Amino acid sequence: MTTTLHDFNYPWVPDQGNGRFRNPVIHADYSDPDVIRHGRDFWMVASSFTATPGLPILHSYDLVNWTLVNHAIRQVPHESYREVRPGCGVWAPSIRFHNNLFWVVFPMPDEGIYVTTATDPRDEWCEPWLLQAAKGWIDPCPFWDDDGKAYLFHAYANSRSGKKERIHARPMSPDGRTLLGEGQEIIHTPHHAYLEGPKLHKLKDWYYILAPGGGVPQGWQVAFRSRNVFGPYEEKVVLERGSTAINGPHQGALVDSPDGKWWFVHFQDTGPFGRITHLQPVEWHDDWPRMGEDYDGNGVGEPVSEWTKPVLDKSIPVAIPQTSDTFDSERLGLQWQWQANHDGSWYSLAARPGWLRLYAQPSALTDPCRIPHLLMQKFPARRFSVEARIDFQPAGPGELAGIAVIGGGESATLSLDRTIGGYHLSFRINGVEQSKVALPTRVMRLRVDVDENANCSFGWADDNGEFSDCGPVFQAKEGGWMGSKVGLFSQRPINSDLSGYADFDYFQFSKLAENRGGSEWECLEISPKIDRHLT
């Protein structure tokens, strides 16, 4: 659902309600964003790695208020992604509109370059096809020139190809089905370390390539321009961190608003909180874009913390990408992703209307980070709380279900467990039990508090009691080009023929109180659903 109340108890809202916005415009890990405008609609796509459904599609009317509307792929197009493969899968995509179709071109650095299309981004996207099998080709961007010729621009992943700081242009059939020859390397810039993420535009007979250099945590934006698609290209740094706290700023999209002004959407790497999305105003000087604000007068822009909204229209509602869920829909919310290619039999929203049922999946893994059937969401802010209510219905010993935080190969879980000795509530870090208490009831509320340092404090309560903390605090991590995630799971021993389930009533995010610490819990205004069958 879309959040429409500006004063809702949500951890981060960019629209300030006064015609201005604050950065980031999306405080979640929608990594490697690319954006286009089609009419009055802005469309964004982001990388998704091994998570499914993948390639999230977001929509906005003003570049500030974004809603998640679809995914371009249901599964990662390769059999090996039935398993979690950290750092692999779907990397930085591009989105374009051409010949009455929306196109998303995306790289899988171990498999090649894929393409999918749709007539409407909200509707079904076609089964992706493999444009070119390749290892180490990344960040592809298609381009159709005025003369009808088409090209594919891409960078290289040094980890797979042994190449870096290079942009390659290859002729492509206009239908995006075939590459027509080797093309040529058009940019090589060792002085811009780790140059990648090229996006090509043609404006006023100039071919522009926007690309980040310097690496993800500490880089800058470079603009290249030429009168010829194959160059030679001249260059200029157009956005840098400067005196601001916005490290990077990394790859993104140059896009215009309906009034003819220009904007730049890019990400900032915030470690365990992911690669969050910023919006910068763009001015043109001598046919060069300058992004943000030139605070020190050196001719290079720096990121702004707030600015006037690109589109001032009071009819546009305040919106954020979906997060909280009461499971009242017939379909799983778009904010949820499995950790790898998934099976529809893993869950049900119909078995108990108004609840999410997760069937216990067999697993021999002790590391939750490598379990495909975890159902996860992105961290939505620098400080937040999230609460879930669970009704645990196991069928045999060894089953467990609950809430998890994962990232960077490390995990913390708070679960209801059935053992031979009875029912327990267990807190584990990296699969190692830290604390255990006997369960007073199998209907529990589970909670995670996350502060600005990514310290995660877990707690539990029954429907009538106050929250108790579990300790120790878990430090969330990033890894595999992603921030940490939080979500739900239900599993059983791999050798068990018995399969129970866990029902979840809600999954609710809220602000974290400024003075909260230890076991100080802020109550949520949530009324559990009345169900006489609860035990």
- Distance N terminus to C terminus? 30 Å
Q: How would you characterize the largest beta sheet?
A: 8 strands, mixed
Rg, rounded, reads 24 Å
Residue share in helices?
Answer: under 10%
Number of strands: 38
What percent strand?
A: 35-45%
Principal-axis shape equals globular
Tell me, rounded to a whole number, the average pLDDT: 93
Poorly predicted ranges: 1-7, 517-535
Structural class: mainly beta
Q: How would you explain this protein's 3D organization?
A:
- With 535 residues, this protein is an all-beta fold.
- Helices cover 1% and strands 44% of the residues.
- It has one helix and 38 strands.
- Strands 23, 26, 27, 29, 30, 31, 32 and 37 form an eight-stranded mixed beta sheet that branches. Strands 24, 25, 28, 33, 34, 35, 36 and 38 form an eight-stranded antiparallel beta sheet that branches.
- The chain is globular.
- Mean pLDDT is 93; it is low at 1-7 and 517-535.
Give a brief outline of the structure.
The protein contains one helix and 38 strands. It has 535 residues and is mostly beta strands. The strands form eight sheets. Strands 23, 26, 27, 29, 30, 31, 32 and 37 form an eight-stranded mixed beta sheet that branches.
Describe the structure using short key phrases:
535 residues, mainly beta, eight-stranded mixed beta sheet, eight-stranded antiparallel beta sheet, 1 helix, 1% helix, globular, disordered N terminus
